[in-house]
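The aim of this short unit is practical: by the end, you should be able to scan a pair of folded records and say something sensible about each. We start with the first protein, listed as its amino acid sequence and then its structure tokens.
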Amino acid sequence: DFWREKAKSDPRIDEMINKKGELVPDTEVIASTGQYLKEKSPSLNNLLLDGYPRSLKQYQLLVDWLKEEGKKIDLAILLKISDQEAVRRLSARVVCEKCGTVYNLITNPPPGEKCQCGGNLIQRPDDRPEAIEKRLQTYHSTKKMEFWSRWTESARSKQSLTIC
């Protein structure tokens, strides 16, 4: 959600992630992450980072930054699903233009044709199958996340997980 918020005020980021389905370059991710984490959780305890880091460079810089802050990674959880399932789930997301509520047509459908606030539901460009497939190609072409093996608990997910 951090990058979606940033895209609202930065047309270049908006073009990159919402229109082209590209990932934000490591240099920008790294520059923004530490500041964001300290704002959201000054103690840096019990953080859940969803979808970050995405590359070995991001990982190495995160570890270095955490070390400077007197912290470390205790555990990483890697959820594995097929590309086909990822596209199916992600492309089912819709968002209310008015209030920003996110629905999933499969797991959390809206109450009707419109959002409960009366706003129109749209699919963001980065949730379209072609954008998701492009991100998956990038993911598969980068160095795999072997570096996580030290901390990773792995789960294959054919079912939906409830996040509380």
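Turning to the second protein, read its sequence before its tokens, just as you did above.
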Amino acid sequence: MTVDVLDEYARLSEAKDKIEAEIAAIAEELTGGANPPGLTGPLVDSEGFPRADIDVYRVRHQRHAFACLQTDHKAVMKQIEQMLPQVFAARTAAAKEPKTEPQPPRAPPAAPAVAMAPAARAASSVRKEIGCHRLLAASSDRLKKPFALVQSVQNGAVLLLLLRCFDALNRACLTMRCCCVQSPAATALLRAGDQVLVFGTADATNHRELEAVKEIVLRNVGSAIRVIVRRRPAIQKERVQGDSNDWEVEELVLTPQRWQGAGVLGCVLLPFQEDMATEAARP
């Protein structure tokens, strides 16, 4: 059972990565270069004729493919979210299994080693924490250059609840209690000072002064968005200057939704500038 759950999780993660790569490729094609057609908008000129500077048929085809991939991505992310309790339960059960005693020195049979390989590969792909974030190697070109900075994250909105109650003389009175509701950004484990490398299909090459981020958020209210950020390790927060290898790159899952605070994210994103990053890194 444990192996089946982890194998299915690995399969869904692979499918998600493939879909995201296709989405990113289409977004780059439609939003890159001089005077791009974009993901939406008219394909005719001011006189109502088809634009002569683009392949209108291909743009329409790519836009349709982009919409279909977005639908597929939402479905896969929903499956992954639903599987997370089973995945973590499987990992917990596997950790509690008693370890077998070491066998006398001899050549191990090949069959068991082959049988264990899928489980090992699947387990290595499981996210390390319930917040669905994992440490990534900053090897991809998309992970080299940040384009946005998380200026602040709202940890929660304090709500005052007026509860009707009665005193000892059965007279009505009011009492106030407070509770805290986490914002979507706080739930996703975003931190102030995080430098955003990837936000859905947006990166440093196509974010259009964060307009692409706004579009992605509006299209995905209630759905998960893959966000990749880089941040300093906790023990190195006091180091303002340092080698790029000091950064930790993490993948988060952010789900925009209505909450008790303002907006659907609960954080403030600003276009990335080096001086802003330095200021955010100071204790």
